[in-house]
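pinned: reference chain
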Amino acid sequence: MRPIRLLLLALLLGALGFAGVAAAGLVVTPGDSFGAGTGDVQVGCVATVDTAAVTTKTVNPAGSFEVLGVDVSGLAPDCAGQQVTVTARDGAGDALGTAYGMASGASTARANFAAPIPDGNQITDYAIIVQDEAAQVYGGFLTGQAVVGSTLTAVVAAAGLPAQTVGYTWLRSTDGGSNWAPINGAGGSTYVLTAADLAAEIRVHASITNVDGTESVDTDPVGPVTGAAPVLTQIEVTGTPVVFQSPVTAQVAATGTPSPTVDYIWQRSIDGGVTWADIPGATNSTFTPRNEDYDTYLRLRATATNAVSSTTGYSGKTSLVGGFAPTVTSMTMTGSVYVGSAVRVNPNVQGGPIPQEVYQWQWSIDGAEWRDIDGATATTYSPVAGDVGHRLRMRILAINPLGMTTAYSTFTRAVSATQISSIGDLTLSLAPNWASVDPTGPWTSAVAGISAGLSDGTTSITTYNSSGTTDASVWWVNGTEDPAGSVTAVLYDADGNVVQAGGFSSQFNSYVGGSYWTHSITISNAAVGPGYELRVVNSSGHAIDAYQSVATRATLP
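pinned: its structure tokens
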């Protein structure tokens, strides 16, 4: 400990006159105050020495000592440890003796004079002296377990006046104590050991500081720091595996210090569990079987790792990985159907394992009877000249070990020789021309106009009848009869091939009260190209035919 340095902050010289009489006839002068920060008085210390309370306390049996008590009634708590000086003088002002007392913070300091002070003398001088003591460290040590995850606490014994502060620097050594490095972020009196401390030694460098300087101490090291190796306490797999559909899930638990991490890898066996192979990329706790996993067994390999070591374990094997029979959920068709073009079907086939898909293009004249096209076994087909006038579709056969299914695409319009210019619903509206009808007698022939157009509005049609005029000839029946007939509209390409046909079969109502009828024929999704011709054909076999024109036709541009 450094020597005590006593500095007189203030000396109160009282008047020689009597200010008060204490016990034993001693005269006591008034006291004074010393504010915080005055001279060497510690900041925060405020003291008032009230000499009126000075008393003679005891005289020992030999009569050689007298004890005075000095009341420091205004002593602030921060003055604890400050020294109080009391001086007694005779009537001539000569000092008879000086006593010292230590302020305790309890508002009183005791000052003991070495010899009795005779009656009639004065206790005249009082001083508060700073008792500075440099920071002092008596030692330090660490408490706690040197195990990862445990808390170490630094205990430092220190002293000093004024009060001191303590700083902590935690140090780590990985070479048996030869070299020490600060631990980032560790600056308090406690430190929680981490995985980085495993096998290292730990100590604290403590610095104690006050206004008179700094002292420091290094604690004895603890360690090497240990941990607990990981242990896998649970590896279970749940779920019934099905290719592409039903996953399996692992539940894994592990203990250890520090807490271990767990890595997953799923494995498959093709020989009933005798040998196992890792499944590439299957590293999550949940796994959905893939195509190649069908009819195999699965299991999980789990590895728990921490800073101490690692350990590996395996789950039991799952049930045999199942699958499901093929289904064709959709067949989307794209492309064009004229000679030299290409039409494609994109099937969506489900199944586990992945089904084998067999394709076959077919053609039909009427959409009812279909024939295979030799060599057309891909998803894409390019129509040839022999396909003109035929409709096309694709048949798919999907096969896997669990079943087989067959599906057909929608069929196309009839193949044309050249690229079409427009597609839409082609509608013919037929209405009688009543101007040439005599409603009073047997009805004779009437003239019905034919108008036609594509629903997309891109094609206009000029119609002709068998006479070369722009009217279609229609025979009407007597009002007393109710005949029936059928009409068909046929679309021909420029080479005279039938492309599409449409029509109706219905009764043509007789004229009643001036009413008349209108019929329409619609060819859905008509494909019209240059030089195409639309012909209206009537039925035969009825007593009176509704339409007598044989070759009423419309020529399309």
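why pinned: The chain has a mean pLDDT of 68. The chain is about 0% helix and 50% strand.
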